[in-house]
C-alpha cells in the first residue's frame, strides 16, 4: 500500500519550484529576456574565487581515491574541527567537533532535528511567514505545526499569540532570521524575550522545548547597524541548522551543518538521536569533495554589493509606486502586500505581464507575494515598468 502522506507530498509540489519551472518553460517560448522571474532564491552571484581555486587544487593534488571516498556519516573530523573553531572564534561560543554533524544543507539538518525531537502528537511552533517546507518536514516527523503570525509592519514576534500557542505538547520552536520570505532580521530584544518565555515554559511543563535556528541567510545582511544574534548564547536548548548555499553561492552542492548546542541538557543523547534520524532517512554522508573544500573557505563570502543594490533599487521603486513592502535587512527577498485580498489573483495579474512572483499562502501568511531579487540588476530595471503598471491598475 502507498503512503497517503507521501503521495500527497509528491502530488502537491513546492509552489516555488512549480513557478520556477513555468518560468523556464516560458523563457524557452518567448526568450529569457522577456520573462521577469523573481520566483526562486537561487543565488546569481559567482562563488568566491577561493572556491574554484581550492577545488582545482584538490582535484589536481589530492589522491582521487581519498578525495571521492565515503566519509564518516557525521562528516570528516578535520572539517568538523575547522567548523567548530570558526564558530568558537566568530561568535565567542565554545564548541567542539563532537557537537557538529556535516549535512546536505540546512534542509537536511532541519529534517534530522524534527525526526529526533518529535513524537506523535507533538507540536512545533512556526513563526509565519516561514519557509514553505517547514510544515512538510514537521508532518513527516509525526508532529503538528502550529502557526503564529508575526506583527505588521515590522514582522517581529507577536508574543501574545506565541504564548497562547505554547502548550505542554510543544516540542520545538523554529526561528529563521534573516527570514525567508520577508528578509526581516529579528531584533535582539525580541529574541531575548522569546528565550525568557521558553525558559519559563520549560520549567512549567518539565521537559525541553527546543529552539531551532534555521540560518541559511545568517551572513547575508546589508545594513551596518543590523546584527544577527547567535541564539545558542541566549538559550541552552538550541539547534543551529546552517547552509553554505548562499554565502558561498553553491546551492547545488548541498553543504551545511547541524550544531547541537553543548549547553543543551543531555546533548550527547540528543546528538545521537539526530544521528539516528539521519540514518533512518538515508543521509549517509555529504559530498566528500566539498567537505574537503570547506576548511579553506570558511571565511569566504560572496560580494553582497549586487544584492544590496538590487534590494535598494526594487524596494525604493515598489514603495514609490504605492506597494506596501516589509523592509528587509537581509536574505534576498521582498515581501510585498497584495493590493487585493487574494494573493493568487495578484500573482496571475503579474504573470500576465511576464512577472513571476510567489503567492504567500504556502508561507503560512496569506495576502502577500515574495519577490526574489537574486537576479541581474538589469532584469530588475527592465521589470520596473511592469510593476508600475500593476500598481496603476490597482489605483495605488
Structure characterization notes:
There is one protein chain. The chain has 396 residues and is α/β, with parallel strands linked by helices. It has two domains: 4-48 and 302-393, Aspartate Aminotransferase, domain 1 (Alpha-Beta Complex), CATH 3.90.1150; 67-297, 3-Layer(aba) Sandwich (Aspartate Aminotransferase, domain 2), CATH 3.40.640.10. It is built from 14 helices and twelve strands. Strands 2-8-7-6-5-3-4 form a seven-stranded mixed beta sheet, sandwiched between helices. The chain has a three-stranded antiparallel beta sheet with strand order 9-12-11. A two-stranded parallel sheet has the order 1-10. Helix 7 links the parallel strand 3 (123-128) and strand 4. Helix 3 (49-61) packs across helix 11, helix 6 crosses helix 10 (267-280) and helix 12 runs parallel beside helix 14 (377-393). The protein is globular, with a radius of gyration of 21 Å.
Mean pLDDT, all residues = 94
The biggest beta sheet reads: 7 strands, mixed
Overall geometry: globular
N-to-C CA distance: 53 Å
Side by side, the strands of the main sheet go: 2-8-7-6-5-3-4
CATH class of the largest domain: Alpha Beta
Order of helices and strands: HHEHHHEHEHEHEHEEEHHHEHEEEH
Predict the CATH topology of the largest domain.
Answer: Aspartate Aminotransferase, domain 2
Number of domains: 2
Helix content range: 40-55%
Give the radius of gyration: 21 Å
Number of helices: 14
The CATH homologous superfamily of the largest domain is called Type I PLP-dependent aspartate aminotransferase-like (Major domain)
Amino acid at each position: 500500500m502507498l503512503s497517503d502522506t507521501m503521495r500527497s507530498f509528491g502530488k502537491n509540489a513546492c509552489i516555488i519550484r512549480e513557478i520556477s519551472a513555468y518560468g523556464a518553460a516560458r523563457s524557452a517560448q518567448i526568450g529569457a529576456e522577456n520573462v521577469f522571474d523573481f520566483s526562486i532564491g537561487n543565488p546569481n552571484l559567482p562563488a568566491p574565487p577561493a572556491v574554484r581555486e581550492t577545488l582545482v587544487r584538490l582535484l589536481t593534488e589530492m589522491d582521487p581515491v581519498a578525495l571521492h571516498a565515503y566519509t564518516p556519516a557525521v562528516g570528516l573530523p578535520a572539517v568538523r574541527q575547522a567548523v567548530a573553531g570558526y564558530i568558537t572564534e566568530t561568535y565567542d561560543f565554545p564548541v567542539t567537533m563532537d557537537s557538529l554533524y556535516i549535512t546536505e544543507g540546512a534542509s537536511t539538518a532541519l529534517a534530522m532535528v524534527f525526526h529526533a525531537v518529535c513524537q506523535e502528537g507533538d507540536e512545533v511552533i512556526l513563526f509565519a511567514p516561514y519557509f514553505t517546507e517547514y510544515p512538510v518536514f514537521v508532518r513527516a516527523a509525526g508532529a503538528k505545526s502550529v502557526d503564529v503570525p508575526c506583527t505588521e509592519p515590522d514582522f517581529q514576534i507577536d508574543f501574545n499569540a506565541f504564548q497562547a500557542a505554547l502548550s505542554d505538547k510543544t516540542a520545538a520552536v523554529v526561528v529563521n532570521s534573516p527570514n525567508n520570505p520577508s528578509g526581516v532580521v529579528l531584533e535582539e530584544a525580541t529574541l531575548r524575550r522569546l528565550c525568557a518565555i521558553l525558559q519559563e515554559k520549560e520549567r512549567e511543563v518539565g521537559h525541553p522545548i527546543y529552539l531551532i535556528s534555521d540560518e541559511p541567510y545568517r551572513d547575508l545582511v546589508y545594513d551596518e547597524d543590523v546584527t544577527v544574534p547567535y541564539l545558542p548564547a541566549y538559550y541552552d536548548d538550541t539547534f543551529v541548522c546552517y547552509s553554505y548555499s548562499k554565502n558561498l553561492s553553491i546551492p547545488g552542492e548541498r553543504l551545511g551543518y547541524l550544531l547541537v548546542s553543548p549547553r543543551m541538557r543531555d546533548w550527547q543523547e540528543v546528538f545521537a538521536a539526530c544521528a539516528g534520524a539521519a540514518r533512518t532517512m538515508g543521509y549517509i554522508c555529504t559530498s566528500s569533495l566539498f567537505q574537503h573544500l570547506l576548511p579553506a573557505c570558511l571565511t569566504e563570502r560572496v560580494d553582497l554589493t549586487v544584492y544590496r543594490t538590487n534590494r535598494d533599487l526594487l524596494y525604493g521603486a515598489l514603495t514609490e509606486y504605492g506597494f506596501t513592502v516589509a523592509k528587509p535587512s537581509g536574505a534576498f527577498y521582498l515581501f510585498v502586500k497584495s493590493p487585493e485580498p487574494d494573493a493568487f489573483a495578484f500573482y496571475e495579474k503579474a504573470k500576465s505581464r511576464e512577472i513571476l512572483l510567489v503567492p504567500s499562502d504556502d508561507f503560512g501568511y496569506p495576502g502577500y507575494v515574495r519577490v526574489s531579487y537574486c537576479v541581474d540588476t538589469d532584469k530588475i530595471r527592465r521589470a520596473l515598468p511592469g510593476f508600475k503598471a500593476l500598481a496603476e491598475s490597482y489605483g495605488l
